[in-house]
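Listing S7. Sequence submitted for prediction.
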Amino acid sequence: MNQTNELLEAFRYVDQHFYEMLEEVQTACSFRSVASDKAGIEGAASYILQKMEQLGMEIQRHNVENGNPVLLGQKQGETDKTLFFYHHYDVVSEGAVDRWISPPFEPAVRDGRIWGRGVSDNKGALFCRLHALQAVLAVCGRLPVNVKVFAEGDEECLSPSLKALIRRQPETFREMCRADAIIWENSRNDEKNRPWASFGVGGSFGINLSVQSIREDAHSRMGVMLPNAAWRLVWALASLKNEQEEILIDGFYDDVAPVTEADRNILEAFPYEEEAVKERYGIDHFLLNKTGYELKERIYTQPSLTICGIDAGESAHGFRGIVPSRARARLSCRLMMNQRAEDVAALIEKHLKTHGFEDISVEIDGCVSPVRTPADIPLKEALTRAAALVYEKPLVIELAQLGGGPAGLFREAWPDIPIAGIGPANTGSSHHAPNENITLEHYKNAVKMVIALLFTY
């Protein structure tokens, strides 16, 4: 059987066994593998390793003290090329269950989609790789290339177990991720069913600000004489950014990489469905009235500083007429190429002290620096050819996925390794939100895309 026939037979295998594959995705997503839920983590990890063993993969389970297991399955192929698939099997908490149409850990198939926590982020994407391997092995009895499938158990809380493993066993980690290319955890299909490949991973870190102004809350009539923690925090926040959306921290933009001609070409060709996005969020314009190329350049090349939440006066329990004694805020800083997370975090701490906010406590967590992969490499050619074998529409190249992740840890081990994301998500997959989902069509095509990549690579 020649390679073209093998590919088509593997595609047919997916069609014939598709609903069995969906059942496995549903089982994987039934484990409540929030990083702190040890029973859910263990159930998910064991199920993944069981699936890898069924595929004849050599498995490794690296237990981490006071952490969650790091998993690796690998299988030799017919060439010396190695593809490494990065994933995580932990999920964010389900949040308010009453906002879900069906129970978050009882995955359901309806309306052409699978619904459930983790079905897109990231267990569905992980299993689409395993199901691709299953199809190729069933038809061919071997793989065209060497494959490694990696899964960590606390990416959603900033990968502490993976970082601990790297600190304690750096050479073990380096050998685990020795490969020719990394396929990152996911990407998406857009509103017009075009498949995307994301050639980079965003950087980010979290900032917790807190202040205590008086020993205990006081009646609001005391507001003319007692310092108010909420106002103090608001003034500190206001010093960070102006109404023109400019971040006011000295040196914040200094290391941001300039837009290259190659970047510009990718952004100009990149289809961004502005009207669909505005409709989804119920707005009639974007910040600063940006549109067209300017909007895309802002999204993909400019860092951001976002207030994620503010709390004072225990308002979640009902409003009281008080001068609050304590206030806190959570911020997220998203980084662009050449910015180093730890350096930018230090600039923020320095800014607050310089502007007289020494009483504001600053806690930084989850520092991950951004990575980018040039798109003019053989991996792009392989992905483009693979997509053409599966999809009616050509592959869209995204400059980098906007979400953060620990890609920088892999680049520290292998500085030149290309990293690109593909996967079954859609623009309405609702990552981290109620009613997370993927479409059945996107899942089937994502499995076939991985099959095609194994052959084209």
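Caption to Listing S7: primary sequence and predicted structure tokens for the chain studied. Residues 123-140 form the longest helix (18 residues). The chain is about 35% helix and 20% strand.
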